[in-house]
Amino acid sequence: MDSIKKFFDKKVKDAKFKKAGQGLSLTSSPGRQPSSSHQLPRQRNAPTHDARVAGAAALARFEQQTKKTDVDWTQYAIKAQARKELEAERKAMEQLKLTESEAEDFKPREIECDSASVLAVQGVYFYCPLLGPEIATYNEIKQQIKEFLFSQVEEDKGVSSCLIIHTCNKNKEKVNVCIETLCKYIENILSNPTEEKFRKIRISNKAYQERIEPMEGTKEFLEAAGFSVKELPFNDATEKFWVFPEEKLDDLSTLEQLRDALVSAEPLRPQLDRGTRVLLPAEAATQIDLPPEFFNMTTDELKREMQNRTKDVERTQMLMTKVMREKLEMREIRKYRFSLIRVRFPDGLILQGTFGVYEKFAEIMTFVRSRLVNDWRPFILSLSGGGKILIPLLP
Question: What pTM did the predictor assign?
Answer without folding.
Answer: 0.61
